[in-house]
Design a protein that fits this description.
about 35% helix; globular; seven-stranded parallel beta sheet; single chain; about 325 residues; 12 helices; Rossmann fold
Length: about 325
Amino acid sequence: MFKVLVSDPISDLGISLLVEASDISIDKKTGLSEDELVAIIGEYDALLVRSQTRVTERIMTAGKSLKVIGRAGVGVDNIDLDAATKRGIVVINAPDGNTITTCEHTFAMMMALARHIPQAYAKTIGGEWDRKSFVGVELRNKTLGVLGMGRIGSEVAARAKAFGMKVLGYDPFLTEERADKLGVTLATVDDVVRGADFITVHTPLTPETRHMIGKAQFEVIKPGVRIVNCARGGIIDEQALIEAIDAGRVAGAAFDVFEEEPPAADHPFLKHPKVIVTPHLGASTVEAQENVAIDVSEQLLHILRNEPYKNAVNMPPCTRRPAREA
């Protein structure tokens, strides 16, 4: 019998595959501290998390039986991949389940930013009928710069085309052939910064993408640009962005993610009239939560049963252990 610990809130329907498996014993214990996880993780073969649990080297060291860590979502920056790889623990994610919901949230943020919807709503329910302060811009005939043309970025680009936007796409793995197929113009980061009316980022957070748009980029950015980040906090330099907005170079920003989450109460984004924020809702739909849980549960079962699997984000430098008898 394999033991699986679910340490974050995850859709019951999504993990029904594990609940119903005859060779799986599943425990749901959410909100645990690192010390509490360390105390119990030794008895489990698998750990299933979302973004709340930080899976540290200390937790993995205590997890003597751990074979697999499943992340019900895309980003795995809350998991120490080096420590997992060193211990032969496979880390899997669910790269497809969040695609549409994150894409749609990006467009919701972009349109709210273009039309000042949250600000206008707040003023209207406060009793003020103020139309003059909220003159927006159309998306039609504007240029959208998409930094990161993977699953989500490609879906955003497709919808932007439907809105009559020109799309500049940057991705180190994007070819001219693929760009042509998507109907986008292959571009560099500098092309996007200098030419886009709207910029949205859809890359993972890595040392190479951290502050991909920072002080240097804001100095040459197209005046009046609007910036959206529904990917990961840290891809855009938050302090440099605020300075660019206050200097009039950037018209506004919409952020679903922060460098530190939750942000400090005095974070400049939270009270700035030209910044729209949401609390990391990109993947927060009923459909997405079920889809990512189903995807990662299926792969987790394959790994425990020593069957072929996909969506591993690390490659352990050891062969898989023989399947343990149930």
